[in-house]
Amino acid sequence: MTTSQLRQLLVSATQVSCSMGLGDVVCQFLEQSDQETATIDLKRTSRMFVTGFFVSGPWNHCQYQLLERFAPGNAGLTVLKKVLASAALAPISITLMFASVLSLQNRSDEIPNKLQDDLMQTWTVGAAYWPFVLGLNFMYVPLQHRPLVGAAAGSLWNVYNSFQANKSIDIPGDLAILIEEHVVAETEHGAGGKETKCG
Asked: Is the separation of the CB atoms in 190 and 156 below 8 Å?
């Protein structure tokens, strides 16, 4: 790995870790929306930050590089291939995130149950959000800037990610539905705005 490639990797990891940390802070505020004063669990936020820097960030960086080799360019069919490949690889990303967060909590023995309970639900919600975002990213953004754009779009997604990674039985069950609806609504709003401009 060259110095330039290492620098790009570190930049991507930093961008993703900041996005995940910010998403966790927003998620904690949402979880405590019925309370007068919100208290931020900095240890929890730090776990998301560490996961972003050492796990999710490097994985996202390598994924963008691999997808570009798999389907170089930004033609319509090429972008579609990348979006479909990203969807196929998403369970790996989700698994890595869940495993990292639980391991940092010394709860690695719970990883199998966590994947069984939440992997498909998280992937399904992501399938309603990421294809639109990735389509624009692959089509209009240069390769070296795609992790940054992905991290920016991921700030919203990471609110939901943080909830899924950290949820426990004492968190209201309908909060997941609230966050899912918010993610999907933002996606539909963005897609609607795009269609209006094209029309």
From this structure: no
What is the C-alpha to C-alpha distance for residues 99 and 119, in angstroms, rounded to an integer? 11
The H or E element spanning position 95 is: helix 76-104
Say what the pTM is: 0.78
Number of domains in the chain: 1
> How far, CA to CA in Å, does 189 sit from each of 137, 162, 186?
17, 23, 5
Q: How many other β-carbons are positioned within 10 Å of the β-carbon of residue 169?
A: 5
- Counting Cβ atoms within 10 Å, is residue 39 exposed (0-12), middle (13-18) or buried (19+)? exposed
Mapped onto helix, strand or coil, the DSSP state of residue 172 is coil
Q: Which domain holds residue 113?
A: 3-198
* Mean pLDDT, contiguous 10-residue spans, the chain (199 residues): 91 93 94 88 97 96 92 90 94 96 96 95 92 90 85 88 78 57 64 45
CA 196 – CA 143 distance, rounded (Å): 27
